[in-house]
Amino acid sequence: MIAIRTSREIGLLRDANQIVAEVLTALAGMVRPGVTTGELDAAAEAMMLQRKARPAFKGYHGYPASTCISVDEVVVHGIPGKRVLEPGQIVSMDVGVQYRGYYGDAAVTVACGEIDEDRQRLLDTTDWALSEAVHAAREGNFVRDIGRAVQRVCEAQGYGVVRDFVGHGIGTEMHEAPQVPNFDVGGAGPRLKAGMVVAIEPMVNMGGYQVKVLADGWTAVTADGKPSAHFEHSVVVRESGGEILSGAAWPVWGRRGPWPGSLPGNNEKTV
Ligand code: MF3
Ligand code: CO
Predict the structure, then answer these.
(1) Pairing outcome for strands 74-76 and 102-111
(2) CATH topology for the 7-244 domain
(3) What backbone phi and psi angles, to 5 degrees, belong to 108?
């Protein structure tokens, strides 16, 4: 069953997701060469507790930290620690909280210092794919339309869209029905109705879509070692498209495609 949330519940989900957005905005401002991923995690946890929010990832299936910080070839679920950020890396930061019984979950990938054009293009394209996917999260569409939007944008660039991890419903649990894949699973699948709330989170690889999980049981890396980007918003399904609950006060997210000259005839919205 996929929950339809009342406006009161959506208000609570917005509160939780706005805490996530504030934390991510602060973290994005802290990313620079020399900072450790553990320092970012500690700052994030302090901000959550200050706002009376519980770090939702900590202890989740035994996960040991309050954030996931995934550098370059790490796709998702990088465990923060002693790793020192270096110039030229891309850093995905994923934050989740529980606040007054409701969950917030979002992620953003940012540059550490100057990055090369290939990495910049991966970030821009993945963020653009998320915005297309949010637009597809509207009443009457199917869940599969969200993944189709991601795939259409990213595969046109030759990128690999990760299949082993998916987005999800979010509400009084961090992970609820439905699963929200970033690729087209085929079949009809569930239809989207106004008031459903989903976390949409494209994970996009510069190379192939295949990933593997390291011996720590968490860290997911690209099989070919090439960089990967990850953006996530929690959104309410509305008649005209998804309404973002985890929007930031300034555009940590919000790059728009298409990359100049890259996608002839392939960027019209489906109406
Ligand atoms: N943000 C992740 C998600 O969207 C959850 C991180 S896994 C955890 O599903 F174990 F760290 F919580
Ligand atoms: Co999520």
Answers:
(1) unpaired
(2) Creatine Amidinohydrolase (3.90.230)
(3) -145, 150
What does pTM read for this prediction? 0.95
Instruction: Count other Cβ atoms within 10 Å, centred on residue 255.
Output: 16
Q: Residue 199 CA: which ligand 1 atom is closest?
A: 4
Residue to substitute in 60, 130, 165, 219 for testing ligand 1 pocket (most ligand atoms within 8 angstroms of CB): 60
Lookup result for tokens 């869940």: 143
* Domains of the chain, residue spans: 7-244
Q: Which atom of ligand 1 is nearest to the CA of 68?
A: 11
Residue identifier of the C-alpha nearest atom 5 of ligand 1:
57
pLDDT tens-digit profile of 139-186? Answer: 999 999 999 999 999 999 999 999 999 999 999 999 999 999 999 988
Tell me which residue has its CA closest to atom 12 in ligand 1: 57
